[in-house]
Input
Amino acid sequence: MKKFGLLFISLIFVNLLIGCNQEKVPGNKAKVKKLKNTFSISGAWIRPAAKNMNSACYFEVVNNTSKPDTLLGAESDLAKTVQIHETFNSGKDMMGMKHVKVVPVKANSTVQFKPSGYHVMLIGLNEDLKPGDTERVTLKFKNRGKVVIIAKVKNNR
Amino acid sequence: MITKFNIFLLVFVIAIVSSCRNNLPLSEKVSSYRLIDQDSTQVTFPDFAKGKILVVGYIFTNCPDVCPLTTNNMSIIQEKLKNGNISGVQFVSISFDPATDKPSVLKKFAEVRNLDLSNWKFLTGDKPTIKKLIKEVGVVAIPSDSTVLPGGSKQYYYVHTDRISLMDQSGTIRKNYPGSKIKINEILQDIKSLK
Output
């Protein structure tokens, strides 16, 4: 009898949990709908680095539209030169970096600029970039034109 | 009487013991090198840290991606050890680009990242010494891509070994890890096994 009681309470508990999840679903759907047909840059951050040295800016390009675009370059007052670079592994843990002229952003795709991958390289910094600072970098897209992003300076993996 | 089960047991035990030994697979004694730290103080590497475990990263400060990742990983390891009250570990970052990485440059590189230099030295040296050192420890650094800055100066980037080394208290390399992708818990366990 006691076992039946416990089973009954467990079933109610499981039911409540499922109920909670069901309530969340319409909200999530609404969020997904909102994101459709948008083109956004998210999660921008920059590594700390000292004046005259180099740093890198990372972010995510989320293209939820049916139109492709191309990142043509970037500009910023933070550095003497700003270029798109890509880190590569040439085998046996040999890491290198190369200048990339453009980065295609396909329709309905996400392109990540992340450590050990694509990054906007800030070459010859005009000032120290310290953890906690907030900086601006302008991305130049073929179709969308210039997009200004705000990036936080932080140590990160 | 030797049964099949006993043979299996013996093989199993041998496999376990040898896998434990492979935790620290290397035993490469490193020669002494006269280097200079971020405060322009002469340091004999690795002798200056004799009796301590060494965590050594190889970097160049013009590197915006891989070397800062390695440095950040070393900072995380340092903090985890501090939080775990594990002492007797010395951190060292050695530049393989001595032409650019003078002591003042290394100091600035560390300062802007708020690194704790209480048990961390950034080392550089003259070109022949650095060349000999990185060859001995198996680090390769080849100048590759470059950028010409407004004003005409040229900046070189290296294709280089992504490396953090763990050295024991006698200055012997015991294990190498990919510096930018190191598994923090793995090296923490290896450090504990050297205590």
